[in-house]
Amino acid sequence: MSYLDLHGEVAQDIDAEIETALDRLGPLAATTRLSVAKLLEHRKLRHPLSVLPLLTHAIETGDPRPAVPLSALHLLWWTSACYLDDLADADDRSIAGELTEDEALLASVITGNALPIRIILSQDLPEPARRALINEFLNGWIIGVDGQLDDMRGDITGASRKSLVETYRGKSGAPFGMITAMAAIFSGATDERVELWREFGYVFGILWQLFNDQEDILSGRDEDLLNGTVTYLLASVVEDAAPLSRARIMDLHSAAGRSPQARAELASLMRTPAALDAYRAEIDGFRAEAYRILDELGGDAGYQPMLRHLVDHASQMLLEAELPEVAGAA
């Protein structure tokens, strides 16, 4: 069975958990309930990352199903976070469906904050475990926002692989570290294992951000270049460039938001064989670190391969080098 099979088995249970959370809003919040439901319908996630707490719990206990409430929480969090991220990048595009942007913004606050807290409070848990879950959730939000702010303020002149890893550990690593640590707490794992799971989530989050960066390029949207976002791939190209080439890359980056030609030239520089060979090696390094942590964790042998499969999915090298055209070629 793969992680996709597992998601198929529990998807209805996750939806039911979210419906229950919406029902807990009560009759006095009928408008809010409708707005949140519309946001969830319009902003469906493309990848079934809600399996991550299920797999964490299953590796600890042999049973994924008790973690369904955390899968619902994870889906709610990402729906809210992705909407807020897209809102910052939207320009004139409509990203709210039937809702106005202001309605969707308010709905996203409830979706990513109030509903997840309600889910935690509704669980039959010892009080220390409940406090630990709430603290983990709040820390995930705080560190994730801090990383997102660093990303938004990214300065290409000071960008490096090291600085981008720190940014990615925040903006994408923190939410995954949050949910894997929460699932470990939920399973009754020791503090040492909770820490290992949190670190695994951080590494997985870096891999997922690298995967997401590649998807943006392959989609043709080039939102990162349009928005002036400094990605890990761009930072590595800058770091490896000779001084004159580095100055040219910075000029192209500055013009990319308004110039299709500058975007195209910069994209080509990011897809040279040398740049992508280095990028592939670095992705492999993060995957190896994720594997190392899973080796240290051990746990249920039936579910470990599923999580490794998810790591492999996040570690794909999607980009191919753009080779220069040969003169006279057909």
Structure description:
The protein is mostly helical and 330 residues long. The protein has a single domain (3-314), classed as Orthogonal Bundle (Farnesyl Diphosphate Synthase), CATH 1.10.600. It is 74% helix and 0% strand. It has 14 helices and no strands. It has helices spanning 3-23, 30-42, 51-61, 68-89, 101-121, 127-152, 161-187, 191-219, 223-227, 232-240, 243-255, 260-269, 273-297, 304-314. Helix 4 packs antiparallel against helix 7, helix 7 crosses helix 8 (191-219) and helix 11 packs antiparallel against helix 12 (260-269). Residues 325-330 have low confidence and may be disordered.
Largest sheet report: none
CATH architect. name: Orthogonal Bundle
Query: Helix count, per DSSP?
Result: 14
Name of the CATH superfamily: Farnesyl Diphosphate Synthase
What is the assembly state of the chains in this entry? single chain
The structural domain count equals: 1
Q: What structural class is derived from the secondary structure elements? A: mainly alpha
Give the helix proportion (percent range): over 70%
Radius of gyration: 21 Å
Strand and helix order = HHHHHHHHHHHHHH
Question: Mean of residue pLDDT?
Answer: 91
The total of beta strands comes to 0
CATH fold description: Farnesyl Diphosphate Synthase
